[in-house]
Amino acid sequence: MKLVKVYVTLKTSVLDAQGEAIKSAIQTMGYDHVSQVSMGKYFELRFDDYSQLDQDVDAICDELLTNPNIETYRYEIVEEK
Amino acid sequence: MKLVKVYVTLKTSVLDAQGEAIKSAIQTMGYDHVSQVSMGKYFELRFDDYSQLDQDVDAICDELLTNPNIETYRYEIVEEK
Question: How many Å lie between the alpha carbon of A53 and the closest alpha carbon of chain B?
Answer without folding.
Answer: 9
